[in-house]
Specification:
The chain has about 170 residues and is mostly beta strands. It has helices at about 45-50, 150-155; strands at about 5-15, 25, 35, 60-65, 75-80, 85, 90, 100-105, 110-120, 125, 135-150. It starts with 6 loop residues before the first strand and ends in an 11-residue tail after the last helix. It binds zinc ion.
């Protein structure tokens, strides 16, 4: 069986930035990444590179930044008044740390994660670009297993059972 659309595929992989040995993400065979191929939930180029493989087969491919998270957008770097980080009249020192991620919400309440770039006297600068924006992604790994998705999984557009949703 070769991976194709409407298969549930389990993989292990290591993600690095192209040209770097530093691990960005490591997914082992004991706790693999399980996904529904062809559901459109993942980066298209990622799915394309994982199509036509057999269980046990290894892969090694690079997604350009354009195929991945695009270029960093200057407009996604925003200055937020320090007032927004006051809790009970005190600046939230432990939440706002330069070089550390911070969890926030957009106007409609959706969770957003940004990176604190600078803490000024009047504003905190936060970068809401994807951490891998502007970078080429190097994936190396192995296909662990492949199975046909169930009709329910296809209807829901996601995987059920081990590694997937439970409901
Ligand atoms: Zn479901």
């Amino acid at each position: 069986m070769k991976t194709s659309a409407n298969h549930v595929v389990s993989i292990s992989y290591k993600l690095t930035e192209q040209g770097s040995d530093e691990t960005v993400e490591l997914v082992t065979g004991e706790d693999p990444f399980v996904f529904l191929l062809g559901s459109g939930n993942l980066l298209e180029a990622f799915e394309r590179n994982l199509t036509g493989l057999e269980a046990g087969q290894t892969f090694d491919f690079i997604l350009t930044s354009q195929e991945a998270y695009g270029d960093p957008d200057q407009e996604a770097i925003v200055k937020i008044p320090v007032d927004a980080f006051m809790i009970d009249g005190k600046f939230a020192e432990d939440l706002v740390v330069v070089g550390q991620p911070i969890r926030m919400q957009d106007q409609t309440g959706n969770p957003l994660v940004g990176m604190v770039i600078e803490r000024g006297l009047e504003a905190v600068t936060i970068d809401f670009n994807h951490p891998m924006a502007g970078k080429a992604l190097h994936f190396r790994g192995e296909v662990i297993s492949i199975r046909q998705a169930t009709e329910e999984e296809l209807e829901h557009g996601h995987v059920h059972g081990p590694g997937g949703h439970h409901h």
